[in-house]
């Protein structure tokens, strides 16, 4: 119990989760921006140093050719006022120092490998001064040319301390800018997120309380406060569902109970005296058609849409059965069983049942293009045998029905059939094998029978005039 009370509220957990998510994005982004700013600052410093070195190299061209030492000294002295420059000197093609100024001796600079100095200039500088060791300067070299011929080199020493200082100033500026603009927005976002999450969780808790009321059998419970948002639509849907459950419960309470045992027994006794004179035994063929995958289909549709689709399917099945002198025995959920009887004038009940099944699948395929998904999911099983038929009026409501093993067999064959398929029993095949094209199905145990049955998948009717499907 103590652990339950110490747990954080759900809205607070969501708020903390979003805070951590935002920080995870902002902190690395800030670090990346600062690092990139430092790189840009160092690159800009080196670019300015290169531009200055090229400028002085161009100015040193004439004094170098004329070996005017005074002009060269005045030229290199011009960089003394720049605190970012540690030294400047001019050499000829043999690295003879002609003029220099600054705190670094030219000999120390010339000892540096030319490869390291060139890499520092071309690749830019990094905070670690890669390739330059611990030297406090970056030597920038600009060739002095005359008519495309190198006559000397101008060396300019860029202060490492100045570069690092510029990088730190840039990083500090970027960091202050990020904090100045991101912190207020971050705080404002946290406040808005806090109240939004609290509101959302509050609405969810209201819906949960309504569901708990339904679980306590308080059908018809209504949530009074309906907000103007998505939660309002959810609340309205909940109230509508609660009223429907209440209506369904009231209808269930009005169901008429069956007659008392004595009156029921008396009714059965009276009807049993009538049944023997009306029972007939006859050869029949049973067509059992059912929807494959009905549960998945019904879960994604409203009950009204399901009933409309089923009614269309049942109407088509009844119409096709009647065209082949068959009749609907009963509707069982999403399935329908049709009976084709043998009569003196029409003893070909098995042939008519198979032709009706083929015709039904064709009609269902045609009508399925109009948007009724049930019509594409019908599997059919056909069996034949002897059945009893007669009225059942034990409850004073006469119903003519058929009783026989063929119904169970037809149902089992329907279970084997895939959508659009027709499965026939061995007896059906033997009766019309000269009229059909079939594919054998391996034997398997069916229902509660112990022996294996051989069944066949109907592939089509042979084109013979004596069993053509009548035109509708």
Chart the SSEs and their pairings:
Elements: H1 2-6, H2 10-59, H3 61-65, H4 69-77, E1 85-92, E2 97-102, H5 106-110, H6 114-123, E3 137-146, E4 149-159, H7 160-215, H8 230-253, H9 261-274, E5 280-291, H10 294-299, H11 303-323, E6 327-332, E7 335-341, H12 349-367, E8 378-392, E9 399-403, H13 405-416, E10 422-425, H14 426-432, E11 436-444, E12 453-461
Parallel strand pairs: 8-10
Antiparallel strand pairs: 1-2, 1-4, 3-4, 5-7, 5-8, 6-7, 8-9, 10-12, 11-12
- What is the CATH superfamily label of the largest domain? Nucleotide cyclase, GGDEF domain
Annotated CATH topology of the largest domain: Alpha-Beta Plaits
The main sheet comes to: 8 strands, mixed
CATH architecture of the largest domain: 2-Layer Sandwich
Low-confidence stretches: 1-6, 115-133, 254-261, 267-275, 467-472
- CATH class categorisation of the largest domain: Alpha Beta
Overall 3D geometry?
elongated
Overall strand count: 12
Distance N to C terminus:
74 Å
The topology string of helices and strands comes to: HHHHEEHHEEHHHEHHEEHEEHEHEE
Structural class: alpha+beta
Tell me the number of structural domains: 2
Mean pLDDT across all amino acids? 79
Rg of Cα set: 48 Å
Q: State which percent range the strand residues make up.
A: 15-25%
Instruction: Enumerate how many helices there are, as a single number.
Output: 14
User: What share of residues is helical?
Assistant: 40-55%
